[in-house]
Amino acid sequence: MRALKLVSTKTLSREEWLQWRHKGIGSSDAAAAVGKSPYTSPLALWLEKTGRKAAEDLSQKEAVRWGTLLEPLIAQAYAEQTGKKVRRVNAILQHPEHPYLLANLDRVVEGGGILEIKTAGLRSQGLWEEGIPEHYRIQVLHQLLVTGKSWAEVAVLIGGQEFRTYRIEPEGGELSELLQAEQAFWQHVRDDTPPEADGSESSGKALQWLYPRSTATLVDYTDHAAMNALFRELLQARAKRKAAEVQEAILEQRMKESLGDAEGAVFELGKVLWKSSKDSRTLDTQKLIQEHPEWAEPYRITKPGSRRFTVQAE
User: Fold this and answer.
1) Is 144 within the bounds of a domain?
2) Which site among 5, 19, 66, 245 is 20 to 30 Å from 262 CA-CA?
3) Which positions are tagged coiled coil (predicted)?
4) What is the residue range of 27's domain?
5) In the chain, what's the furthest Cα-to-Cα distance?
């Protein structure tokens, strides 16, 4: 199986490229589509793919900008270290049987492989100690699914000075499982029905964006068995969280009692710190407004209200 070349990217503007991305699931979307992205939930991705919300422009973020600048250097380092030739693929690729599966490749490798190029800061170095982070592995598996290729390698530059390579070959039914999960997500896009929220911060923001204002409506679920069961689970979860928070506060306060005025302590499993922060100067805006309200008036703005979720048990 060979991927189709959907469109050349040589002369595509960023806006045009984003429009093509709306037509399917790209490799950088794959982890989000199957609920494995640490940044984007399926619900947030669904908002983008259905055209409800524009995708965030990451191109000017420092990490992304430096990743783009370093990409050709990392590709060159990979070629020199491995002795394998690499080349660009200036096209958006499309699965021949599932046209909504798309991929952009950093490079292809002689011998039929794919090269995915990454940069990582020192703060994220730990994510690579056990191998390729899961969401990046899914990204590469998606590329293999689209292209029909049997292997890929990931070249990563960590902290600007440590170069590593990792090989990926699909195991067992990985590709078929990924295909099924992506099909399920894309069905939500086709049907224009949102996937379930998954408890992530991304899903919370997506729901707030999807339903920004409330109406004066109180839904009666008193005779709705499923919703009443959900409410009971919510009450139980909140009770457990409250008990855990109280226990944590007790343990923290006992630790502070033991520390006294010491700034911290070390233990067999780690350490705690209770350090004083530096004094800072700040503006007493409340006093300023009280004494000179006319100064503040030109700077007042109206901020849209947000929706607050509260739970009241009978």
Assistant:
1) yes
2) 245
3) 227-254
4) 4-191
5) 76
